[in-house]
Amino acid sequence: MRVLVSCDRIGRLGPAGASDAVAGAFAGRGAQVAVAPVSGGGEGLAEAVARFSPGARVLAAENLRQACDMLAEGPDYLDVTAVTAPELGELLELPVTPARAGTTMVVPHREAGRALTGLTGSLAERGRETGAGIAAALAEDSRAAAWLERLGVTDRAPAGALCGLGAWALGCGARVASGIRICVDGYRLSELAAKADVIVTGTDVLDLHRRGGDVVAELTRLGVEALRPVVVVAGRNFVSSRELRLAGIEEAHAVTPPGVGEIDITAEQLEALAQRVAGTWTW
């Protein structure tokens, strides 16, 4: 039996630790296991990148100034998922310095699909959230369009990531992508999913609102495309079996029942859960 294990953070375990704990249970039952930790950003991203690209340099910025300084250092990956989306005026003042060839700026997963201007652009969305009038929104779009022209950047995703930080990075010659996309490409997860008999992913909380977050959503998408069952292990699960199947998930297993308050899940607890799951999915 071939199993793809690709988890996000679970409890106190980062993506790598969580994936290894789950993978060990399946390997112990004789399964061939491919382990591919996935993260959208933060410390977990550095863990994941180290698995498919040992030696790659990952820097993480906490604010706009750090992002600007760190891009000049030429890392392989610059994680800006913790940076607050800047105002357009702040971006206009940033120097446009050529980035090292091969540098990728890592943005939040849902930001990677945004353009900057227009009715569906990130600037318009922020304007609606802040209650800006139509005249102000049009003026902001006009300034942004002129800036994009100076940068030589076409206004399509991911230029609108973090309200234009993506466009600035593109103008500097960097690539812009989400951490999850970087992991999917780095591991060649589409190929691994197609070769697996079952896909196991994991998250802290599986609920109706986020359904486990972006990592679970991406692994579920890969499973649906490859016609492979997807199993989720979680700290807690609030989703019924019917709702899971509607979301493309075969089943979910949790360390603690829904009524239990938040706990700090340990490796031992996750391993015990994984042993039970592996017992029903190995042959």
TrEMBL record:
Alphabetically ordered keywords of this record: Kinase, Transferase
InterPro entries in the cross-refs: Glycerate_kinase (IPR004381), Glycerate_kinase_RE-like (IPR018197), Glycerate_kinase_sf (IPR036129)
GO biological process: organic acid phosphorylation
Gene3D superfamilies xrefs: Glycerate kinase, domain 1
Transferase in keyword set: yes
Entry superkingdom: Bacteria
Molecular function (Gene Ontology), one example: glycerate kinase activity
PANTHER family named in the record: GLYCERATE KINASE (PTHR21599)
Protein name (Swiss-Prot/TrEMBL): Glycerate kinase
